[in-house]
Amino acid sequence: MITISNFNLNGWSCFLPIFLVISQIINNMGKDGLVIVYTGKGKGKTTAALGMALRAVGHNHKVCMIQFIKGSWHYGEMASSKLLEPQFELVAVGKGFVGILDDKSPREEHVKIALEAVHISREKIQSKKYDVIILDEINYAVNLGLVEVNDVLDLIKIKPANLNLVLTGNYASDKIINVADLVTEMKEIKHPFQVGIKAKKGIDY
């Protein structure tokens, strides 16, 4: 049992602030699932999420990764995830990066696909079948204007208490960062692209 006494500090009552802090601590003690954000300009955001997925599968947890941007390209995880089925499910929805490289899709098509990815994410979250759900590159999708930040906040709000929800991608919104439990910013110090080395199979994709 916790006993809280009301007292004055320089004429101000300190009962309410202490009560609110302790209430928050008690609420957090019962919180199993986390909201985790990997953002920043450095490499490794999706890689970190995949590492978490591998660890979770090792505990027989069920993981789903929904890719908001990379869906039309071939990445190593598209094949390796099949080796981890049925514990690891990968849903590639996007049509590739927007407005760069070989992108020939109209913006409207990117928006349509991104909204479909939000719909799929909502279904997966509400199914209560998963221990970890990764929304890959969703932060980037918000920054590009393909997804509304309020849609992402709604996904966080409907998250079951025991679900770990991971959001990757650069330019994470402050609104998302504020409600997250863990935020890691990847910082680029050196990158092989700076000296003309192209993306490497098995390392970058």
What does this structure look like?
With 205 residues, the chain is of the alpha/beta class. The N and C termini lie far apart (53 Å). It has a 6-stranded parallel beta sheet with strand order 5-4-6-7-3-8, with helices on both faces. Strands 1-2 form a two-stranded antiparallel ribbon. It has helices at residues 15-29, 45-58, 76-83, 107-127, 138-143, 149-157, 174-179; strands at 8-9, 12-13, 35-39, 63-67, 88-92, 132-136, 164-168, 182-185. The longest helix has 21 residues, at 107-127. It is built from 7 helices and 8 strands, in the order ββαβαβαβαβααβαβ.
How do the helices and strands line up, and which of them pair or pack?
Elements: E1 8-9, E2 12-13, H1 15-29, E3 35-39, H2 45-58, E4 63-67, H3 76-83, E5 88-92, H4 107-127, E6 132-136, H5 138-143, H6 149-157, E7 164-168, H7 174-179, E8 182-185
Parallel strand pairs: 3-7, 3-8, 4-5, 4-6, 6-7
Antiparallel strand pairs: 1-2
Task: Output the keywords.
single chain, 205 residues, alpha/beta, six-stranded parallel beta sheet, globular
Brief overview:
The protein is of the alpha/beta class and 205 residues long. The protein is built from 7 helices and 8 strands.
Distance between the termini: 53 Å
**What is the residue-mean pLDDT, rounded to a whole number?**
84
Basic shape? globular
Largest sheet: 6 strands, parallel
Number of helices: 7
